[in-house]
């Protein structure tokens, strides 16, 4: 069952490189995945359910990995980046498709919560919360911008920008 779902996800992301999710038919998806339509309908009711399943898995993975990460803001950023890059195609589609901004908002809230609980012993003041929210929203938006403008900066430059963002705003929070 897990292999079939993975094949369907892989096929979906392959097709998403060429067309929108709304224009992908079950027949075409099954053809690319190498499975029958009957097998497809055992697992999903329609093509968008595959992506919804992926969204939930990614949200759970981010939450799990971030809560397991101990240490500094830089370490949390590194963990988040590793998750993103390991799931590059899916996150890119999420970032560039406005219908999936709910998941990105959910991930931003998870980042905020994880930074807040992992890095600070005391409850944050209102000012600190605003700065931390700016930080976590900025990190998400940096990836969204990079996915939308891949020629604007390299991946290494993106990492450097995010590291500077974390360092600068964490300094402001701890003032």
From TrEMBL:
Keywords: DNA-binding. The keyword Phosphoprotein does not apply. Residues 2-62 form the HTH tetR-type domain. Coiled coil: none annotated. Residues 25-44 bind DNA. Gene3D superfamilies: Tetracycline Repressor, domain 2 (1.10.357.10). GO terms for molecular function: DNA binding. InterPro entries: Homeodomain-like_sf (IPR009057), HTH-type_Tx_Regulator (IPR050624), HTH_TetR (IPR001647). This is HTH tetR-type domain-containing protein.
């Amino acid at each position: 069952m897990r292999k079939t779902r993975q094949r369907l996800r892989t096929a979906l992301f392959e097709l998403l490189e060429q067309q929108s999710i709304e224009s992908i038919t079950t027949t075409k998806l099954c053809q690319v995945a190498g499975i029958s339509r009957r097998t497809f309908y055992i697992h999903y009711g329609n093509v968008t359910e595959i992506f919804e399943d992926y969204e939930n898995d990614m949200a759970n993975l981010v939450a799990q990995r971030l809560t397991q990460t101990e240490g500094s803001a830089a370490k949390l950023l590194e963990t988040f980046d590793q998750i993103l890059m390991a799931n590059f195609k899916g996150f890119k589609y999420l970032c560039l498709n406005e219908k999936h901004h709910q998941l990105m908002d959910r991930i931003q809230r998870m980042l905020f919560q994880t930074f807040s609980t992992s890095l600070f012993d005391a409850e944050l003041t209102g000012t600190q919360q605003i700065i931390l929210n700016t930080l976590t929203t900025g990190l998400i938006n940096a990836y969204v911008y990079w996915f939308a403008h891949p020629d604007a900066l390299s991946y290494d430059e993106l990492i450097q920008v995010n590291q500077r963002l974390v360092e600068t705003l964490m300094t402001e929070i701890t003032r």
